[in-house]
Write a structure and sequence with these properties.
Layout: E1 2-7, H1 12-22, E2 27-33, H2 42-45, E3 67-70, H3 76-83, E4 91-94, E5 109-110, H4 113-121, E6 125-127, H5 131-145, E7 153-159, H6 174-177, E8 182-183, H7 191-202, E9 210-216, E10 223-230, H8 235-245, E11 252-254, E12 270-277, E13 280-287, H9 295-305
Amino acid sequence: MIEAGIIGGAGYTAGELIRILLHHPEVNLNFVFSTSQPGKSLSSIHQDLIGESDIQFTNKINIQVDVVFLCLGHGNSKKFLSENQFSENTKIVDLSTDFRMKAEDHEFVYGLPELNKKEIKSADYIANPGCFATAITLAILPLAEMNLLNDEVHVNAVTGATGAGTSLSTTTHFTWRDNNFSAYKSFGHQHLHEIGQSLKQLQKNHSSEINFIPNRGNFSRGIHATAYTKFSGELEEAKKLYNEFYKDAVFTFLTEEELHLKQVVNTNKCILRLEKFGDKLLITSVIDNLLKGASGQAVQNMNLMFGLDEKSGLNLKASYF
């Protein structure tokens, strides 16, 4: 059994990670570290876990675990690792932004399996992608592989309230969020950097703008993204290109049907739909921001790192009702 630990156990992504790992056939959840909840049961915070586990949050870490997941606020993972050292055999999956951009001062591999599966399999340290970055990159990555991203890409995407985390702010209160809709960080969202990095990995000369408008939706979870750019080929050519690119991707699928969030919420899937309008290709992409956009993808990466079936522990089912 793989012994796993979680650092920062009280948030939404940690809650999803706990749920997956408790039922993963190859994993034993060794500890869940939290400085704010030590001594409390997991179900005192993640209340659906009543009867699922008798594990308590702890303020002590086991440095000998096989894998540790960092579910800390952005900027805190680097600080935590500088103050706490795990064994040389411990693999790390970080769910923050801290290591997503390539740099000489770290050995983290960017954990988008559809792009870096081979590298992930041999990695000791994984930087899990951001939720918007996952949905948008998967929408346009096949075009980059064929050097077809030579014009601006326009993206409009909506995320649920869980994308903001558990910390309260004006825009996360129910009275503000309910029956409401708003844009934020237009053209300047932090995930743009990692999207650009991934595109240049396949299309070295990529320099076209990614015009991204993120939006807050009045629902709990999920991301619905639409991206369009100029494409001179026919729709069937695009579909063939995408099907070929994702032929070995176990969680990314193309569909002919209109997309909606209930197809992917509570799953680790990304579903894409292609449409052609004049000289423009429209790609719609939907994911669950807490699963394929965070904890589900983290476990997918862990499976690859340990040579397990990529889908192990991730046979999650969407619910329409």
